[in-house]
Amino acid sequence: MSTELDVFVKESLAQGLERSAIREVLLRAGWREDELTTALSAYAEIDFPVPVPRPKPYLQAREAFLYLVSFIALYVTAFSLITLIFGFIDKTFPDPLSHGGGLGGIRMALASIIVTFPVYLFLMWRLTKDAAVYPERRQSRLRKWLTYFTLVVASSIIAGDLITLLAKLLGGDLSAPFILKVLTILLVVGSIFGYYLWDLRQSEKVDQQ
Predict the structure, then answer these.
(1) CA-based, 20 to 30 A from 165: which of 39, 56, 74, 142?
(2) Which of residues 162 and 55 earns the better pLDDT score?
(3) Bridge partners, 43 (sequence order)
(4) Is residue 73 within 8 Å of 119, Cβ to Cβ?
(5) CA 209/CA 206 separation, integer angstroms
(6) Is 55 exposed, middle or buried (0-12, 13-18, 19+ CB in 10 A)?
(7) 84 Cβ contact list (under 8 Å, min separation 6)
(8) Would you list the domain boundaries of the chain?
(9) Rounded CA separation 193/138 (Å)
(10) Strand 43-44 relative to strand 52-53, pairing
(11) By C-alpha distance, which of 120, 126, 123, 137 is closest to 59?
């Protein structure tokens, strides 16, 4: 955070100015919304003669481990789910020229989901519970970086999926298995993108309060 911005916010709060007025004048001066949210959230909304600083959010090794493992479990679960559905599609619409993995690939994908999805749910429950007790932990940089990374990867996959669909459509080479696989990717990856975009917006709303 900019030193000038922090000093301005601290002095303005010390003079008793409303947070909304401070935010408005800084926005007019050209500061970004996220910068103002960070600067204002650094001080607690407590009735005291001088601004009361909040404890700065930090990420312990345990939390870093939980975040990293939870996102890895998410990626493995998503990939395995897509692989599993692809396997069922190939079984429903067999291609005599294809030499796919057959039941072995389906079993491996199912086993991966059985292991990783409960791990993801448990870790997310744990992290959400911790954030409810310590709201400042939702501001952890690692969490936000992993969230943005997930959104970037998901949006890239969705864009590539749609480009492939359009290319096949223009070439008149559409088939039922191909369409089902495209829809599978859109459904799985799109659900992940939608959830984390919603979660990010909820986090920003909490920060602005």
Answers:
(1) 74
(2) 162
(3) 53
(4) yes
(5) 5
(6) exposed
(7) 106, 109, 110, 113
(8) 3-53, 61-208
(9) 19
(10) antiparallel
(11) 137
